[in-house]
Amino acid sequence: MSKNGKSVFDGLLAAARAEEEVKPEVSSKKIEGSQGKRQNPEYRQTTIYVRKDLHKKVKRILEDSGFEGDFSDWVEKCMLGEIANHQGD
To answer: Is the pTM of this model over 0.85?
Structure first.
């Protein structure tokens, strides 16, 4: 503490508090009607085992191609394609 009773860190604390006050408040509510797959009863969580190198290659290809969706969206697309192939038999 200095002679005037203030810590050398008081300025830092005041700046940090001021910065916290400036941050916009982010709503924790999701967009109405938006529901994640985990809470959606139409989806079922499934665990599969894929070699690490294959998973890495597929993720890279999806990112490079600009695929709109996540890994599970891509798996679903592949599964639907396979069903369509078998229905044509």
So the answer is: no
